[in-house]
Amino acid sequence: MIIASCPVFGQEVKPIEEVVISPGNDRENSIQIELSKDKIQNKLASDLGQILSLLPGLQIKNYGDVGGLKTVSFRSLGAGHTALVQDYSSVSTTQSGQADLSSFPVDFIERLELITLSPTRTQIPVHAKLAGAVVNVESVHSYVGTNMRNLILGAQAGSFDQYEGYLMLQKRSRKWAGTLTGKIRSYGGSYPYTYLNGNTRIQDRRKNNSLLEYFGTASIQFSPNSDHRIQLRISGNEYKKELAGAVIFYNSNAAQYLNGFGLNGSLNHRYSKNKWNIFSSVNYQKNNLQYLDSTYLNSLGYLDQRFYSVQVDFQSQAAYSITKDLEILIGSSFISEELKGKSLVGNRHRNTSESILGMEWKALGKILVQLGVQGVFEKRDTVNQSQWNLLPAVSWSFDLGSKNKIGIVYRYTCRQPTFSELYYRQIGNTKLRTEKAHIASLRYELALPFKKGISQTMIQPFYSYVYDKILAVPTKNLFIWSIQNIGISDAIGVEFTQFIQKKIANHTLGARINYTFQYTRDISDPESQTYGDLLSYSPLHSGSLELDYSWKKIGFFILTSYLGERYAMNQNIPVNLLEGYVLLDAGASYTQQLKKSELTLRFSVNNITNRQYSYINYFVMPGTHFNIRLQYAL
């Protein structure tokens, strides 16, 4: 079960078994998402994208099933405005400027947060704090990991030749902790599909869609005393994917492949004593990418594109509590990114310097203020460029009584064009300008605890105004696209979350409703034919309804998710309209205690109604499919 709360107000609500509803860290304005490990694993999600798709305000662009590219955006902002943080380190790919959620397994996640403002929290990186929103992921490798198991061993099998195996080893002592996790998965991906091409209904089977991927992470933590904590973390993944592509004009004999390798390393130190909280880190990311098309029509008869990227960053933040009601933070970071490739003219390089000043003041409620300064230095078309951006943010919140809370947030954020948007083959555009956005939201929350249960309601109206928005648009014809600054767009909407849980003896019942209305339009040029049209892949309506039940060793859930109509391009004409869809999933789990260990069996069925659908036009998704998992924990 995913629970959304508003910890900024600091109202205590007594936790219920298996679900945590708490104010958490009240030094931020955030929606805190607490998922018990059982709740996460019951979904048997293949990656982080499938979990985040359940949260209001987040949109997941899904280009395929297992292993297919998935990116996250917040309230119609580009994916570059949403920072992904894993165990205190920002994660993104230098080439694309964003994280591929399909490369993040969920087997070892312990906590998720969606943060809108965190000015005095030192363990959220400076670069992430300056983004429009932060998705914070903490796993068994984090400082606060609650997992006390020494061994977790699991295997999973599913439809269309999906097989997974994972392992966790952990050893803790008073000063030391070591954790090792690993996973391997393979996927055939040969699923049937049906789509309508004009008036013709075509039935076929997905081909050239297989995947083989490896993940591994090792971390060591050392605490010489209660004031200091040092961690070294190294992770990597390697994959080999076949690329099926869009099904329109689909060539079933296509031989397109994507191979990649990633290596991340981080060393961080945390010092906390009396009124001081200091966090420093050094991070290294390396990514190799190869795109191979064996049937490409050129003089060689094939296409082999290879890219090599390296990112190094270091940061330090210090927070000091002047009084019990006033805390300040100062921090700074430096990021160096480089991209190499035979198809690129020269090595592409960018340096980014960022500083932040944050404050939390408990006066007339709670006031949070953050001021960021960002300097960007790079070379484009043999010309050195530099720019400075001032990025303010402010939040004010207060109680309206013992059960009602209200808060308002405003922030200004920007994102730089990615290396792919600037330089990738014929679609790149070196003239791109920085995308900038104003974001404002109002939050009202009502918490009504009752005997052995709770009802929690959250309503969030929001508005965003984006200029120099970066989008891929057709510039010559339907098949030749390029990246452009389209001008100005805005979005107005509201997010609604309702959660109810009740415990009766050994029985626990829960229900969660998420709904998002979002009206995102192009307002660049009143003379344009697309003026006032909805932006591509921005649905007006989306939401989900989840019911779950647990009794002793047994658990069940039913999940219904909905994505409304949207347009494949900014031209809101019938040919570009994609119909909405409703998906129905269900699952069950059984846990057997074996002295000091436990054995858990989980089963899920996805898309029970065998709905034929796609999020991205012509990237068809699978119909009914199942997964089964067996896990042993010691």
Q: What kind of sheet is the major sheet?
A: 22 strands, antiparallel, barrel
- The number of E-state strands comes to 34
**Overall pLDDT metric:** 85
What separation lies between the terminal Cα atoms? 24 Å
Q: Overall 3D geometry?
A: globular
Estimate percent helicity: under 10%
Q: What is the rounded Rg?
A: 24 Å
Low-pLDDT regions: 1-31
Overall SS class = mainly beta
Number of H- or I-type helical stretches: 4
Q: Percent of residues in beta strands?
A: over 45%
Task: Write a concise synopsis of the structure shown.
This protein has 634 residues and is mainly beta. The protein is built from 4 helices and 34 strands. It has helices at 37-42, 48-52, 126-129, 419-423; strands spanning 3-5, 29-34, 58-62, 70-74, 82-86, 89-91, 109-117, 133-139, 151-158, 162-172, 176-187, 192-197, 200-205, 211-225, 228-242, 256-273, 276-293, 303-323, 326-341, 348-361, 366-380, 383-399, 404-415, 435-450, 453-477, 480-504, 507-522, 541-551, 554-563, 566-567, 577-578, 581-594, 597-606, 625-633.
Notable features of this structure?
mainly beta, 34 strands, 22-stranded antiparallel β-barrel, 61% strand, 4 helices, 3% helix, 6-stranded mixed β-sheet, 634 residues
Overview of this protein structure:
This protein has about 625 residues and is mainly beta. The chain contains four helices and 34 strands. The protein has a 22-stranded antiparallel barrel. A hairpin with a 3-residue loop joins β9 and β10. The radius of gyration is 24 Å and the shape is globular. Mean pLDDT is about 85; it is low at about 1-30.
